[in-house]
């Protein structure tokens, strides 16, 4: 009995360490991304000086979107290495690369000093960010899912989107505090660089947290089985994970991309684009828009764990379908209400949208982890999640801003979200439920 109790205590301690490492790595990625989004207007001024502020903002978001083009390529690389070399290796190296690129952006001279080289270097560093980021969310979620107890996998995996929101929250709070205590001219000149430079020490901290962990028991068991089969002559050369994914699990991959579309668009629109939308389209004061987003993010973090718990109880498929239907019904009325520019009204609308978003986000990481078998789990998760984010997430702010400019309607982003929600709904109806299965059985 004592040995069993000691084993359970050690197992719980290990799971907590993995949860902490997964949280920290993903937090850094999204703190970095939030910094770029929340200071988008300032970055537009520094790197894209233009007489037309709307055009400069579109150029800034275009760089944001272009960096996502490397995410599918990064997903193939990190996923393949994560399935071959280990979850720990891919997660550790990718977060270190991400932090380094973000640190360099904080030191990058603007257009006034380097001319056209400044936006070109900004794009290069954003490309490096996009490449490395494609390994982090998937790596953190896969790592955690393979350690988590079967009946609490949804709850544990919800830590990953929670760390995403907290990264955004810290970025939003940083922006709010800086605009409150510093003159706007100082923020525009040098203050915006501070959160980028902080990525350096954060990346070093994440590296030292990760090197203390081992790969998951599920992954180690698969590696032992492969070695035993190879030693006994029962198997030939091991199949490359990415080749196996495309030849044996293509249907799962396509459905997973469709399911992840809503997360991609909903996340970037609700949590990163809306502050800029409220400021530039609704004409709300900058400090009010930032404050609303900060409150919404705190609420999002509180809701996300509840969604993970509910997905353990009711299943991933029901939760994800519910989110699709809610976005289809509520998005257009939400944008109509936000156009009032009334602080309380906009706040309530954002809180409701955050609640709907958490139904999706609190469930998606466990759903994607359960969709693919161990030998291609990292690759399948990384590629489906990052393809959706490359095509729909990273382009969300750019598309929404361009749609408003082209149509003259501030409702254009709402119609875009509804269309994406419909596609995600079809994908989820075609999906399968694996909530209560051991990952080794999938």
Automatic annotation (TrEMBL):
Matching Gene3D superfamilies = MFS general substrate transporter like domains
* Secretion signal span: none
Grouped into one coarse class, the protein's main location is membrane
For this UniProt record, the keywords arranged alphabetically read as follows: Cell membrane, Membrane, Symport, Transmembrane, Transmembrane helix, Transport
Molecular-function GO terms, alphabetical = symporter activity
Q: How does the UniProt record describe the way this protein sits in the membrane?
A: Multi-pass membrane protein
Q: What does UniProt give as GO cellular component?
A: plasma membrane
Compartment(s) where it occurs, according to its Swiss-Prot or TrEMBL record: Cell membrane
Per UniProt, residues of the Major facilitator superfamily (MFS) profile domain are: 18-437
| A UniProt-annotated Pfam family | Sugar_tr
Protein origin, superkingdom: Bacteria
The record lists the membrane-crossing segments as 21-48, 54-79, 91-114, 120-144, 156-182, 194-213, 253-277, 289-307, 319-337, 381-404, 410-430
What does the function comment of this entry state? Answer: May be a proton symporter involved in the uptake of osmolytes such as proline and glycine betaine.
- Protein family (similarity comment): Belongs to the major facilitator superfamily. Metabolite:H+ Symporter (MHS) family (TC 2.A.1.6) family.
The protein here is known as Putative proline/betaine transporter
């Amino acid at each position: 009995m004592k040995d069993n109790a000691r084993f359970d205590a050690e197992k719980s301690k290990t799971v907590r360490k993995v949860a902490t490492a997964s949280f920290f790595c993903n937090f850094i990625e999204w703190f970095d991304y939030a910094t770029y989004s929340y200071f988008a207007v300032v970055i537009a001024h520094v790197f894209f000086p233009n007489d037309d502020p709307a055009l400069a903002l579109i150029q800034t978001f275009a760089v944001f979107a272009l960096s996502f083009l490397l995410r599918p390529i990064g997903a193939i690389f990190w996923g393949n290495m994560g399935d071959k070399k280990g979850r720990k290796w891919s997660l550790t190296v990718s977060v270190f690369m991400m932090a380094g690129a973000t640190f360099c952006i904080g030191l990058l001279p603007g257009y006034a000093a380097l001319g056209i080289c400044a936006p070109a270097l900004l794009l290069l560093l954003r490309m490096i960010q996009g490449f490395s980021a494609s390994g982090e969310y998937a790596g953190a979620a896969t790592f955690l899912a393979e350690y988590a107890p079967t009946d609490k996998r949804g709850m544990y995996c919800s830590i990953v989107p929670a760390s995403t929101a907290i990264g955004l929250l810290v970025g939003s709070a940083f922006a709010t505090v800086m605009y409150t205590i510093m003159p706007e001219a100082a923020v525009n000149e040098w203050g915006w660089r501070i959160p980028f430079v902080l990525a350096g020490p954060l990346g070093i901290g994440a590296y030292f947290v990760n090197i203390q962990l081992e790969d998951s028991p599920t992954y180690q068991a698969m590696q032992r089985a492969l070695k035993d089969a190879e030693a006994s002559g029962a198997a030939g050369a091991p199949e490359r994970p990415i080749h196996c994914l495309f030849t044996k699990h293509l249907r799962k991959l396509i459905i997973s991309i469709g399911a992840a579309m809503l997360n991609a668009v909903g996340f970037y629109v609700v949590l990163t684009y809306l502050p800029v939308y409220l400021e530039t389209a609704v004409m709300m004061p900058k400090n009010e828009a930032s404050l609303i987003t900060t409150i919404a993010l705190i609420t999002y973090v509180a809701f996300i764990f509840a969604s993970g718990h509910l997905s353990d109880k009711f299943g991933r498929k029901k939760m994800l379908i519910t989110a699709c239907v809610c976005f289809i019904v509520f998005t257009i009325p939400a944008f109509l209400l936000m156009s009032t520019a009334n602080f309380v009204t906009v706040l309530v609308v954002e809180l409701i949208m955050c609640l709907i978003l958490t139904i999706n986000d609190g469930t998606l990481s466990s759903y994607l982890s359960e969709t693919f078998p161990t030998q291609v789990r990292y690759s399948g998760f990384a590629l489906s999640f990052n393809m959706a984010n490359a095509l729909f997430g990273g382009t969300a702010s750019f598309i929404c801003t361009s749609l408003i400019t082209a149509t003259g309607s501030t409702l254009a982003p709402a119609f875009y979200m509804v269309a994406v929600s419909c596609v995600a709904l079809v994908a989820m109806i075609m999906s399968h439920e694996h909530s209560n299965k051991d990952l080794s059985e999938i």
